[in-house]
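Changelog-adjacent note: as of this version, every example in the card shows the full chain rather than a window. The one below runs 68 residues end to end.
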Amino acid sequence: MPTAKPWYLSRTIWASLITVATSVLGLTGMSLDGVDNVQLTDTVLQAVTALAGIVAVLGRIGAAARIG
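Full-length structure tokens:
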């Protein structure tokens, strides 16, 4: 792979985390019959991407040096 991306933008990492989380929730007795892991992964990844964008904008606003 020529370029690297942050771990939190990896679809595989999120799918794995969601699979583990749904398994743990199933073991604790929560009903997960209607959960679609693929859709949940897409939703979580979109939320993380949006959050990363917000953090980037806030970081730029709070930066001490100008871009240029």
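Structural remarks: The helical segments are 11-27, 37-61.
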